[in-house]
DNA sequence: GTAGTCACTATTTGA
DNA sequence: TAGTGACTAC
């Protein structure tokens, strides 16, 4: 069948419209990937050289999948398309052009840990209070600044940013930012944001007319998941697209309803601005859902209609046959784990589902444990995406630290990590002196290492010298030697191998195996060079490129080994995926939606979009679960069912056992007095807390109607006791009251009136 | 210099 | 609870 015949009329129009700016608003399961891949295949069929086509995707994995799908239509030429994530494509450009902005071409990439530890050290050097200046909070501040193109100078002139910092009682954030930038430059390192920020800088300063080069190269630009791009990414695209005589061949695909990365700077404004920036824009809406059955699609529409801001769009399906959505009400998180495992077992028997068609989704990675326990108990194979990945393990990071140093000795985070690990007689005091000297003279740690002005005892000096020789030797080899051979030598000569071998505990053995797995990965990498895009020759396969590649891997890129396993992951991780059967778990107030989102309505809207993404992953079976009681930080917490459950019409539900027989009864189910509930999970701490609760006689308690709860009223809550209503907001069925309870550690609690048991006094 | 203990504290999502 | 950083004892 010809590829164009596999498309519906709207899809086909979007695919064959090859020139000018195009926006495709694509609902979940509407064939978005198909449109994108066929459009690129179509361009190639029309004679456009594949290396003139750029496609920016969200994960490396989806870029690869896309290339493979294009290949099915146009053959091997497909592999010459520039397809990858923003970060990986831009890193590649920066490697080629680094010298123009004062970076080595083998610059290091600092991951979140490197950045945080560098910031921690800057905060210490500046003698700032580490409590007020929380390193990871500062990191997100700096990230926010970069994503909005604010240099330190612009930051200082930005009244909003400065006053926010003052309000947070940390007026020196911008100074930390400035120092941080210097340090990165000195270390020849870029963090994730820099890969965008520095590229933007390169294009703006435009040495040697470099923008021209890339404008000519990328004649057709595609962006997947456009709703998740931030201002900086948009600005870079604009640089590439907006100039005199530009054909503006840009094709973006997105869905405002699936925007779930606002927390890291993504903004829907990009979709709205797009229409303004490109007056010739043609917009297509893909609304037919080919993925899910009727009840799922309807539920998704109902939920998303509660969001205030959205582009008008209603997804629909012609799939009539349909299972209802199952709702599992559980008393505890443990019961939730058990019943999900049981349901999976049952589904597998009844419908012969392979494990790979089943996914368990949760809001936070920490929730995976209970599911793991119960799946293991049933001997069901599973894999976890996200959480601690291979390259985040300590032993792997240590080894990689040495490799980074061999490639770029100025890499200060790598140097600090390994300089005395395994121990080689370089004390913390010596390292501190090194850092002070480097700061004083504004030289890199690597230079400071052999600076005669360094005031240390002869023994330490000798140790430093030996370390210097060791690393210099690797560094010289890094440019010519085979990466795998060099890495093997580094593992031995660094002393890491001996150190790891010394630990014969099971964990120790697994650490050794992980280090050796890095060697295997490097061999695999060097043995399979990808073709160079312009020449088609086997491309560069240096250690430096390997390091760059692994630092840009994301969780979603983890491969499956072809085993038939159940997938466990966060809802964020599930974006773009689909499964026959999906379990969306932990649907409780404060968890999903997260309590972090309660402060601002935009936050709640984002949680709702996240829920929308979660349920639309399911093709045939959707199961929603919640637990009344759940452990958090070692303590039991009680939660109400998520408001999102209330936003789905009952007719889509099939309620299975648990607390009460039906949904309505769950709302009015008699609530056990706190003491007896805690008693069944007795720990000394819980007991104490329970006895501190105000004693309210459940028998004499008569809940008032939600309408009776108004701001200023004094109310009684079975669990929290007496409280004052500060405010009430939200529409009729979703009213939320902010209440301050007497003797409560929280300044206020937000209570969903529909679920709450409150009595006006 | 290292290993072990203790107390504290953070609580989301991720390239 | 789990991870971390500071402190202590050898």
CA-CA gap between termini: 72 Å
Identify low-pLDDT runs.
659-698
Computed over alpha carbons, the radius of gyration is 28 Å
The total of helices stands at 30
Q: Assign the structural class, choosing from mainly alpha, mainly beta, alpha/beta, alpha+beta, or little secondary structure.
A: alpha/beta
Total number of strands: 21
Question: Approximately how much beta-strand content do the residues carry?
Answer: 5-15%
Helix fraction by DSSP (H/I, runs of at least 4): 40-55%
Shape: globular
Word description of this protein:
The chain is of the alpha/beta class and 761 residues long. Helices cover 44% and strands 14% of the residues. The protein contains 30 helices and 21 strands. Strands 9, 10, 11, 12, 13, 14, 15 and 16 form an eight-stranded mixed beta sheet that branches. A six-stranded parallel beta sheet has the order 3-2-6-7-1-8, with helices on both faces. Strand 6, helix 12 (231-241) and strand 7 form a beta-alpha-beta unit. Helix 5 packs across helix 6 (135-147) and helix 15 crosses helix 16 (368-377). The radius of gyration is 28 Å and the shape is globular. The chain starts with 8 loop residues before the first helix and ends with a strand. Mean pLDDT is 84; it is low at 659-698. The structure holds a DNA duplex (15 and 10 nucleotides).
């Amino acid at each position: 069948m010809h590829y164009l015949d596999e498309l519906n009329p709207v899809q086909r129009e979007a695919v064959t419209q090859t020139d000018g700016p195009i926006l495709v608003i694509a609902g979940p399961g509407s064939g978005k990937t198909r449109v994108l891949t066929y459009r690129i295949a179509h361009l190639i069929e029309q004679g456009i050289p594949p290396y003139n086509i750029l496609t920016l995707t969200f994960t490396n994995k989806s870029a690869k999948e896309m290339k493979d799908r294009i290949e099915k239509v146009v053959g091997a030429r497909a592999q010459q398309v520039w397809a990858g994530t923003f970060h990986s494509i831009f890193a590649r450009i920066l490697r080629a052009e680094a010298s123009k902005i004062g970076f080595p071409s083998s610059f290091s990439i600092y991951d979140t840990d490197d950045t945080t530890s560098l910031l921690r050290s800057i905060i210490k050097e500046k003698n700032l209070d580490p409590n007020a200046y929380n390193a990871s909070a500062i990191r997100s501040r700096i990230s926010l600044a970069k994503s909005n193109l604010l240099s330190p100078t612009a930051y200082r002139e930005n009244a909003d940013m400065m006053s926010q910092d003052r309000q947070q009682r940390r007026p020196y954030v911008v100074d930390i930012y400035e120092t941080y930038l210097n340090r990165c430059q000195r270390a020849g390192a870029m963090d994730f944001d820099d890969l965008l920020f520095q590229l933007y800088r390169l294009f703006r300063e435009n040495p040697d007319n470099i923008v021209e080069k890339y404008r000519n190269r990328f004649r057709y630009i595609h962006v997947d998941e456009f709703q998740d791009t931030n201002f900086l990414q948009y600005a870079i695209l604009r640089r590439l697209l907006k100039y005199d005589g530009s054909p503006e061949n840009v094709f973006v695909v997105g869905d405002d309803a699936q925007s779930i990365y606002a927390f890291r700077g993504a903004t829907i404004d990009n979709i709205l601005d797009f229409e303004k920036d490109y007056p010739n824009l043609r917009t297509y809406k893909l609304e037919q859902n080919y993925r899910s059955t009727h009840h799922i699609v309807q539920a998704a529409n109902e939920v998303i209609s509660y969001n205030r801001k959205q582009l008008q769009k209603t997804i629909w399906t012609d799939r009539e046959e349909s299972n209802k959505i199952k709702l599992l009400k559980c008393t505890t998180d443990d019961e939730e784990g058990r019943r999900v495992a049981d349901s999976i077992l049952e589904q597998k028997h009844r419908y012969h589902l392979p494990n790979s068609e089943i996914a368990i989704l949760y809001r936070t990675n920490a929730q995976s444990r209970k599911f793991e326990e119960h799946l293991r108990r049933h001997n069901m194979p599973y894999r976890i995406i996200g959480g601690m990945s291979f390259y985040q393990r300590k032993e792997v990071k240590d080894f990689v630290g040495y490799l980074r140093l061999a490639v770029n000795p100025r890499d200060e985070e790598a140097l600090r990590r390994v300089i005395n690990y395994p121990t080689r007689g370089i004390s913390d005091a010596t390292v501190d002196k090194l850092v002070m000297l480097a700061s004083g003279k504004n030289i890199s740690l690597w230079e400071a290492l052999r600076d005669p002005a360094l005031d240390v005892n002869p023994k330490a000096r000798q140790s430093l010298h030996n370390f210097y020789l060791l690393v210099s030797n690797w560094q010289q080899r890094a440019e010519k030697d085979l990466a795998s051979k060099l890495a093997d030598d580094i593992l031995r000569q660094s002393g890491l191998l001996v150190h790891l071998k010394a630990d014969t505990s099971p964990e120790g053995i697994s650490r050794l195996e992980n280090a050796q797995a890095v060697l295997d990965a490097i061999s695999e990498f060097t043995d399979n060079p990808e073709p160079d895009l312009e020449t088609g020759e086997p491309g560069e396969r240096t250690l430096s490129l390997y390091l760059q590649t692994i630092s840009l891997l994301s969780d979603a890129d983890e491969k499956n080994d072809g085993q038939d396993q159940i997938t466990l992951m966060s809802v964020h991780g599930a974006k773009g995926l689909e499964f026959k059967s999906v379990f969306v778990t932990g649907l409780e107030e404060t968890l999903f939606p997260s309590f972090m989102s309660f402060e601002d309505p935009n936050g709640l809207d984002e949680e709702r979009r996240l829920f929308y993404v979660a349920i639309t992953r399911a093709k045939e079976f959707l199961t929603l679960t919640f637990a009344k009681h759940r452990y958090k930080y070692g303590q039991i917490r009680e939660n109400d069912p998520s408001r999102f459950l209330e936003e789905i019409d009952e007719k889509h539900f099939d309620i299975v056992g648990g607390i009460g027989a039906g949904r309505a009864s769950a709302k009015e189910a008699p609530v056990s007095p706190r003491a007896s509930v805690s008693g069944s999970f007795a720990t000394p701490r819980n007991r104490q807390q329970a006895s501190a609760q105000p004693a309210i006689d459940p028998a004499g308690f008569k809940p008032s109607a939600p309408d009776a709860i108004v701001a200023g009223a004094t109310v009684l809550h079975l669990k929290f006791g007496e409280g004052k209503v500060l405010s009430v907001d939200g529409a009729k069925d979703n009213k939320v009251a902010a209440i301050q309870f007497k003797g409560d550690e929280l300044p206020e609690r937000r209570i969903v009136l529909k679920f709450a048991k409150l009595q006006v006094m």
